[in-house]
Every structure is written in structure tokens, then in C-alpha cells.
Specification:
Layout (H helix, E strand, L loop, with lengths): L4 H17 L2 H15 L8 H36 L5 H25 L10 E7 L4 H21 L2 E9 L5 E9 L3 H5 L4 E8 L8 E12 L14 E6 L15 E6 L4 E5 L5 H25 L17 E6 L5 E4 L5 E2 L2 H5 L4 H13 L1
Parallel strand pairs: 4-9
Antiparallel strand pairs: 1-3, 1-5, 2-3, 4-5, 6-7, 7-8, 9-10, 10-11
Length: 363
């Protein structure tokens, strides 16, 4: 990139702006108080509270560190630019530093959008097939794999809480817990109905099919968020986990199904190593679902946690994936599109995630 005094000035202003919109000074003061709390005797006596405080402190520390690294990079770029007249090598160094600085500032601006109560935390993502029969089952499986690959690229941890395989191809449902920074905030872009158009691999006449799958998202609630669950209101069923085609993959009754009788909410989990771990994971999902249920009752038409719900069928999709007669993926909200469908299905969805949040911020 071409570097001049105006470019340096603009980047410097963006760095100053970042200090303001990231609330760096406020976060530093808050971190100091949290560090004092963690140093108190008996801090770890309440493990749940201690973990929540430590995680919050870690997020604050990461934000401050990101800003300081960006500010330091700007100073390097500014120094290299001032020395560029004396040596061409400094001009090249300044250009590289400015390119990196722009990327870092873009990332800081993106993270500043996540100001919701749970945006910084982990999330539980569910993929369900919609209209389309076997095609929908296969499409849900493709989306499930796309998200797991995207999470791997982001360095996020993925835990499969539950996956139910369809009789012939694909899945009936997949539930994953994603752990990482700003996961819930970032992945809100994926909530809604996803539409696939392609030549069906299951159609003997090789006809074009349109099918649908939906994505839901819940926050992993912090331990200090109280959701009262009366054990008498929950029916617990245990059964054997099963894999593709119904083949038994577990010789013990380790899978768990929870039914919350007053609301009718059902949660299953079968992919953890033991019945105890499956039960803990299932209650984590149930807690999030009940919290959402109460929020929906309060908010009436506006569901702040899951986003607007739509029918899992034609006319309600948020994004189209077309493999035939041409190749294109297009987000119907942000207008972002690409012809590299293979890359998208391989997990390269960052442009859609960021595009959505830029669109959302502009509304």
C-alpha cells in the first residue's frame, strides 16, 4: 500500500478512537479491582464464582493487550515512515506495518460491537433439517461440518453435545458447544434458515432440489445467572447412544434425555464419555433454553437471545447456497456473496459473519 503523511494521521486517529470505543481505561480500572479480588484469601472457595471472575478478567486483559499491541504497532509504523526518506527499506517496513495495523484495527472495531450481556461468552449451536426430506438431513450435516471447520479455523473449541443420525443420509439434529472469545456475539450471524439448491445426490433422475436447514443459538449462561429448575419438574430418561444407521456405539445407558414437564422442553445429550457428563451437559442446555423461554415471555415479539424465528422453509431464508445451475453463496441481509461455494462449505464463512455484523451495526 502507498503510505503518506495523511495515511499515518488517519491510522493514528483510528488508534485513538479505539481507546475510546473499547473503553480501555475503564477496563483497566475494572481489571485492577478483579485482580485484587482474586488475590483475596478464600477466593477459590466458591469455585463457580471464581471461574466466572477469572474468565471476565481474562477477557478484559485480552482486550487491553490487543489495544496496546495495536498502539505499539502504530508507533513502529510512524517511526518507519519518518525514516523512509533516508532508506527505502524503512518505506517497505512502514507499508507492511500499516497493512497489519489496518487488519488489527478492523478486528478491534469488530470486537467493539459485541456489547450484549453474553456476547463475549461461549455458545450452544443447534442445526436442524427443514423441508426437503433426505435432502434436508444431508444439508443439515453439511452445515454442521461447515461450522465445526469454521470454529477450528478460529481456534475455538468445539464439543459435540448431541448428534442424531438420519436413517439413510445426514442428520436429524446436531448440538455443539463452542468455546472461545466473543463466540456468542460472532455466531449470532448464523441464526436463521439456510437454503440449498443443487442436483440431488439421492435423485435417480438427477433433478434440481431445493432444501432447508435452520440454525439456533443459545448462550452458555455464566454460573452467576440463576435459573431455578425444580428437580421434580424434570423427567430424566437414560438410554444407549447410537451412531449412523442405528449401530450401537455404547454398551451402557449413557445417553440422557431431559424433559421439562411445565414447558415441554426436551433436551438430549449422548456424545459425552459418561452418563454423568451427558447429564451435566444436558442441564446446561436446559438452563439456557429455560432462560430464553422466560426472556421470550417478557419480550413478547422480540426474542433477543435467539433472534427472529422463521419457518424452516422457502421465503424465510437468511442465506442461499446455490450449487446448480451456477455456484454462489449470498447472504440476503448483508448482500455479501461469493462464487467459491466449496470454500464456504469448507468453513470459510468469515466474510459472511463480519458482513452481517457490519450490516447490523449500520441499521
Amino acid at each position: 500500500m502507498d503510505i503518506d503523511a495523511k495515511t499515518i494521521e488517519q491510522l493514528g486517529q483510528r488508534v485513538q478512537d479505539a481507546r475510546v470505543y473499547l473503553h480501555v481505561d475503564e477496563k483497566a480500572a475494572a481489571l485492577e479491582k478483579l485482580d485484587e479480588e482474586t488475590a483475596q484469601p478464600g477466593f477459590w472457595d466458591d469455585a463457580a464464582h471464581a471461574q466466572a471472575v477469572s474468565k471476565h478478567a481474562g477477557n478484559l486483559r485480552d482486550t487491553i493487550k490487543d489495544y496496546e499491541e495495536t498502539r505499539s504497532l502504530f508507533e513502529d509504523a510512524q517511526t518507519a515512515f519518518e525514516l523512509a526518506d533516508e532508506d527505502d527499506a524503512f518505506a517497505e517496513e512502514a507499508a507492511k506495518a500499516c497493512e497489519l495495523l489496518e487488519r488489527k484495527l478492523d478486528a478491534l472495531e469488530l470486537s467493539s460491537w459485541f456489547t450484549g450481556q453474553f456476547d463475549e461468552g461461549d455458545a450452544i449451536l443447534t442445526v436442524n433439517p427443514g423441508q426437503g426430506g433426505q435432502e434436508a438431513n444431508d444439508w443439515a450435516d453439511m452445515l454442521f461440518k461447515m461450522y465445526t471447520r469454521y470454529c477450528e479455523q478460529k481456534g475455538w473449541k468445539v464439543h459435540v453435545l448431541d448428534i442424531s443420525y438420519a436413517e439413510k443420509i445426514g442428520i436429524d439434529r446436531a448440538i455443539i458447544q463452542i468455546e472461545g472469545r466473543n463466540v456468542y456475539g460472532m455466531m449470532r450471524s448464523e441464526v436463521g434458515v439456510h437454503r440449498l439448491v443443487r442436483i440431488s445426490p439421492t435423485d435417480m433422475k438427477a433433478r434440481r432440489h431445493t432444501t432447508f436447514a435452520s440454525v439456533e443459538l443459545l448462550p452458555v449462561l455464566p454460573e452467576d445467572i440463576e435459573v431455578n429448575i425444580d428437580p421434580n419438574d424434570v423427567r430424566v430418561d437414560v438410554y444407549r447412544s447410537s451412531g449412523p444407521g442405528g449401530q450401537c456405539v455404547n454398551t451402557t445407558d449413557s445417553a440422557v434425555r431431559l424433559t421439562h414437564i411445565p414447558t415441554g422442553i426436551v433436551v438430549t445429550c449422548q456424545n459425552q464419555k459418561s452418563q454423568l457428563h451427558n447429564k451435566e451437559a444436558a442441564f446446561r442446555v436446559l438452563k439456557a433454553k429455560l432462560y430464553e423461554h422466560e426472556e421470550a415471555k417478557r419480550a413478547a415479539e422480540i426474542e433477543e437471545l435467539r433472534g427472529e424465528r422463521m419457518d424452516n422453509s422457502f421465503g424465510s431464508q437468511i442465506r442461499n447456497y446455490v450449487l446448480y445451475p451456477y455456484q454462489m453463496v449470498k447472504d440476503l441481509r448483508s448482500g455479501i456473496e461469493t462464487g467459491n461455494v466449496e470454500a464456504v462449505l469448507g468453513g470459510d464463512i468469515e466474510q459472511f459473519v463480519i458482513g452481517y455484523h457490519k450490516w447490523k451495526a449500520s441499521q
